[in-house]
Structure formats: structure tokens, C-alpha cells
Description:
The protein is mostly helical. Helix content is 75%, strand content 0%.
Amino acid sequence: MVRFLLGKIVTFFTTFILITLVVFLVVKIAPGTPFSIFQASQERAIAKMAPADYQALLKKYQLDKPVLVQYRNWLFSLLSGSLGESFAERRPVYKVIGERIPSTLFLNFFSLLLMIIVSFPAGCFSALKKDSIFDRTSGGIFYALYALPSYWVGVMFILFFGVKLKWFPLFGMHSDNAAELGPLQYFLDLCYHAFLPAMCMALQGFAFLSRFTRSAILEVMNQEYIKTAKAKGAPFKRIFFNHILRSSLIPFVTLLGLILPEMVVGSVIIESIFSWPGAGQLYLKSVYTRDYPVIMALSVLGAALVLISSALTDIGYFVVDPRTRRTK
């Protein structure tokens, strides 16, 4: 056990270093610096900066040093508990990111909830009605939705549901009078604004979650102990809820744990399309402005999210699979 834990710790830190190093190098490969706009021609620049002032800024933020030295300084700063200061906003990075994280988490968990509500019952019913019209039709529809690019779906949602039908708002998190609403109305208004971007993120998850659930249930239904329970005359309803459904939840929970980090990464484009003020929109804005501290902090957050989702998957195993409890 000790050797296993040590191996996991070494793997974690090695992977973390490699991820942050690759992200840092990729960002640095892009031409320009956070202050390049001030070095543009006089017609394009907001305010022409003298070369000496430009070099002074680079020296102040240690951008004149070699790339690996910059990465080493950033890593030591991270290990000391500091994420640095945003070049664009001149504020600590943790404050800049902290204002965006709650909205991103809400959007992603709302999207995950929509996935579960739609795909899990659809997968269960498709398994119970294998090769029926519902099974074939739902599978075809879900796979067609899976093939659609999320950014295109987002634009179509805005044009159809926002512009043409006027059922949903086009952008933002809240209505103009949100500050005057009560707690429940405020929450419902937030869900109202989040529905289109959350649904846009959830569409591609419908296909593989529903079909994965269908396959897992069919596999469990073909097990010998299920056939034995049927042969003994046990009611199918009790067999389904006590044995089939419970055993099928194990791979379903695993897949949910892998989906969450992918959704957070995918929300970068969706948040920009719907003007949702979350961390994804901030990440894209930081890439445009070469705000290195913010880019690296969000990359670290993404890596941490992968680890957290892995831990939640293990906890889910422990809850839904009694066999894992006996091995603890």
C-alpha cells in the first residue's frame, strides 16, 4: 500500500510539472508580449511607448529572462502560495479567477444535471426495450447531436431560441432587475439564463452517456445471477432496481467523473459565445492579451480538477459498489 501511494504521488507531481511546462512553452511560443500593443505603429497603438519604458516593463515582470528561467520563477512562486499578478487587470490572480469560478462551476454542474436527467432514463428505457422503435430512434437522434460542433449549435440556439422565438436571453447571467429579485426568483433567473449554454454543452454528452448506460444494463442483464433470480420467480421490478440498476451505476459514475474536466475545458468556447462571465471566457481573453499569470493559474486549476474528479470517482465506487468496501 505504501509503495502504491508513493507511486501515485510521484506520478502526480511528474504529470503536473509536465502539464504546466508544456502550457508555459506553448504560450511563450506565440509572438508578442502583454505589452506588444504599445509597440505597434502609431496609427494602431493606443499610446506609443518608448523603447526604454517597454524594456523596463519586461524587466519588472521578468519577461526579459530565458523561458525556462521564467518557468522556474513561476513554479517557485506557485509553491510559495502565490499565483502572481494579472498583467491586464493589475490585481492578484486569485481575485481575478475567484470572481469567475462560481459562474463556471454553476454552468458545468447545471449542464451535467441535464445530461443525467435526459441520458440515464433514456439509456435505461432503451435497454429494457432493446431494438424497439424508441431504442433505434433515440440512438439516431443522440448520435446526430453528438456529431454537431458545439460552437455551431450555440450560434443556432441564439438565432432560433433567442432572436426568432425570443424564449431565452441572448447573453449574460442575469436580467437587468436581478438585484431586486428575491433568493428563489434570483436562482430561477440564473437558471433561465444558463439553460441555453448548459444545454449546448450537454448535447454531445447525451449520446455516449445514454448508449453507455444501455450497454451497461444489457451486460448486467445477461449475468448468470440475474438469470437465476428470474428463474426463481423474483419480480422483475425488484431485480431491476436492486441488482441491475445498482450494478450499472458503477461504470456510469466512472464516466461522469471523466466528463466533468472535459466539460470545463469545453466551456471556454460556449462561455464566449453566450457572453457568460466565467473562467472559460477569462481564459480565452487571457490568451488574447498574453496574460501569462492568469493562463498558468487556470491551467493549474484544470489539472487540479482532473485529480478531484478522479477522487470523486473513487468515492462513487465506494458508495455504489459494496465489494470495494470489503477491500478497505
